[in-house]
Write a structure and sequence with these properties.
68% of the residues lie in helices and 0% in strands. The protein has 13 helices and no strands. The longest helix has 37 residues.
Length: 311
């Protein structure tokens, strides 16, 4: 009898040990989590992010890449002297311009001005345009009509032509002035994108539930509407950053951009010696093209990761 009891107990223990564990609930995956998982395996994002990281290092720490002064003029080094491609990363590696300044040093130091203009303009445009679009899309009615008509008025102004007219009225074209001129005319697209996104989000069930529970307007906008409507704006800002860098270089090429070291100024100066020394404008042009392409590629990769239709 005791043996039968022991056998029964062993069977109960064995059966209990083979009971499958209750599966753990999976963590809820957010849009940003899925986007980051896709971006980590996207070679377009990896290449563009690596290029932008190198550009950021050039802008923040140009001394890591060259110890030459971009404004040092040595007339003994003339642009008719060919670049010494054997002296890697030296002052004469890419030759000298007409004033005896190192083309390589100016190309490296010009990164800071271009990135500051692009990032500063994108930040101002995103904040201001996003605010206008969020207010117009959420409240609608007469406020939406007024803000939309103002947006249409600014949208009808040619971007580069308007920036040229504005900057031509300033004698000191410093960094804040250039950023202000570009942002003053460039916020319209961000406002339109944010408005459309907010109109879609405000009809969601969680927004209606927050209203029914008595949540304030500011809380609904900041806690429910903005986090779910900002993704398309981030994509537009990333792509537009490269556009603003190209716009600044174009204005500098025309003599209406930043005062100082910039790729646009160097390309403009090199145009006078293009027949005898093409390299003066070649290397700043290459850096400008790589920078604009890197930000456009990054924006496209982020857009594909955030768009559920692209999965």
């Amino acid at each position: 009898m005791p043996e039968l009891t022991k056998t029964a107990d062993d069977a109960v223990v064995a059966t209990a040990s083979h009971v499958p564990d209750k599966p753990k609930p999976e963590k809820t995956r957010s849009l940003w989590g899925d986007a980051w998982r896709d971006l980590r395996t996207n070679w377009v994002f990896i290449v563009s992010a690596a290029l932008i990281l190198i550009l950021l290092l050039m802008a923040a720490f140009p001394g890591l890449f060259t110890d030459a002064d971009p404004n040092d003029k040595d007339l003994a080094n003339h642009y008719l002297q060919q670049p010494n491609y054997g002296h890697l990363f030296a002052a004469d590696w890419l030759g000298y311009d007409a004033q005896g300044r190192s083309v390589y040093a100016r190309t490296i130091h010009g990164t800071r001005a271009s990135l500051l203009v692009g990032a500063g303009t994108a930040l101002v445009v995103t904040v201001f345009g996003g605010l206008i679009g969020m207010l117009a899309g959420y409240f609608g009615g007469w406020l939406d009509a007024v803000l939309s008509r103002i947006t249409d008025m600014f949208f009808g102004i040619p971007f580069l032509l308007g920036a040229m007219v504005m900057l031509n009225s300033f004698t000191d074209r410093s960094l804040p002035v250039v950023i202000g001129a570009l942002a003053f005319l460039g916020w319209t697209q961000t406002a339109r994108v944010m408005r459309g996104s907010v109109i879609t989000v405000k009809q969601a069930d969680y927004v209606q539930a927050a209203k029914a529970l008595g949540a304030g307007t500011s809380r609904i906008l900041l806690r429910h509407v903005l986090p779910n409507a900002v993704a398309p704006v981030i994509v537009v800002a990333t792509i537009s950053l490269g556009v603003y860098i190209g716009a600044e270089a174009t204005l500098s090429f025309l003599g209406l951009g930043l005062d100082g070291v910039s790729w646009g100024n160097d390309i403009s100066d090199g145009g006078n010696q293009i027949r005898v020394a093409r390299y003066i404008m070649l290397y700043p042009s290459i850096m400008l093209s790589i920078t604009v392409l890197a930000f456009i590629m990054l924006g496209e990769a982020v857009r594909n990761a955030l768009d559920p239709k692209m999965r």
